[in-house]
Amino acid sequence: MNIETLINIVLGIIVVVLGILLTLKIRGSKDRVHSQKPGINLETNLRDERLKSGIILNAIEDGVVLIDRDGAIQLFNPGAAVITGWSEDEARKLEYKSVIKLVNDRGEPYSVDLNPLDKIFASPSTTIRDNNANLLTRNGKIIPLSISVSPLFDDKKIFNGAVAIIRDVTKERIEEKQRSEFISTASHEMRTPVAAIEGYLALALNDKVSTIDSRARDYLEKAHDSTQHLGKLFQDLLTSAKAEDGRLTSHPRLIDLGEFMEQLSNDLRFIADKKGLSLEFNIGSSDIIDATLGAGGSHKVIKPFYYIKVDPDRMREVITNLFDNAVKYTDQGKITLGLTGDNQIAQLYIKDTGVGIPAEDIPHLFQKFYRVDNSATRTIGGTGLGLYICRRIVELYQGRIWVESNMGKGSTFFINLPRLSTGQAKIEQEKESVTAAAGSQYTPTPSPVLQ
Ligand code: ADP
Prior knowledge:
- This protein is an alpha+beta fold.
- The chain contains eleven helices and 15 strands.
- The chain has helices at residues 3-59, 78-84, 88-91, 96-99, 116-122, 170-205, 214-244, 257-274, 312-328, 386-396, 422-437, and strands at residues 63-68, 73-76, 101-103, 128-136, 142-153, 159-168, 253-256, 278-283, 286-289, 299-302, 307-310, 334-341, 345-351, 400-406, 410-418.
- It is elongated and about 90 Å long.
- Adenosine-5'-diphosphate binds at residues 325-326, 329, 352, 354-355, 357, 365, 370-372, 377, 382-388, 411.
């Protein structure tokens, strides 16, 4: 080995050692970057997040109340303190029931099945909202409140408490009331002249009292149709405004829904006939073993009575509305009016073979002014108030209304109403007779089974 080779080997070793040292240094510094910098960031981030949430909770006007799984308040932001009148220190650790006292319009405490907080604690599932609640504040004042309660779950999906967001909606309720009053006064005032115009147009179109040429008849018929539409719009606006502020008059009395629908269907048949649609009426029948025929077991088919307690005028309004829609949105086929039920419920349905309703519109259908906007419905006139009014009336009698539909095949609207047993109906009828004898204006129609 000569000197030159030795120098080369030593230089090579130095380069390798330097290389190794350099690699180690770089890795070390990289490790430091990984082990130190993120640590600092995480801490700062957490602190920042807490700071931010604190700032938000303190700044917002809405009340935020965090309740643990035992029902004790754990967090109560300043917004909640202003709304309820309880300070944060007072409210913390107290049971939610003693701080968030919800009451109805008459100032009576919410029942457990109405109170969104009680409902979440009884069976936690999804967020429950109530925009029509009222709160009894610490000072005994009642304020309009909107409340939304969401359940909280731990990572094992076990119920861990709830968070309630509350908002004082005094201003919104006043505005809502003013709007509703305006609509009802305006529609009431406008309904009268519209009715007069409609009446005069009808006279002009009546051959017995007027002589007009065919062109004038054509114009007047169009004017008459539009006036009728306008009259219906004002009537619907008036009814919906009344439904909203609880002024919808209702004089409930005992009726047998089967008999009621049978009578009504005679009037409705005329509307279906006019459009070339057939009408079928199905009333549920049940096979009952007639004990008087002996143990041999003969069967006798009897028509059951579906007793319900509703205002007949309101009920007629609902059925007619659904029926008019069925006719309006059906070009050919038939409309079926049906009634069935069980011991607790009377279920009526109105089925058509019409255009059907798209699935995405169904959840909104019973909202005010909602109309399906597609090629099948665009040319058909309407207000979008009919189904809203139907829902409000049905809810007045603790009922439920919904629809099932198949596009292009037809729709069925269902209504469930609490059904009275024959015994309950008898008691109701006796009460009504007493009221009638005492001079009430409502005379109950005697029902055959109860005489
Ligand atoms: P409208 O005056 O527009 O008929 P409604 O509140 O009665 O108002 O109905 C709301 C919407 O629901 C209608 O615009 C229509 O699109 C749809 N609809 C209601 N009934 C039926 C039906 N039987 N078949 C198909 N669509 C219907």
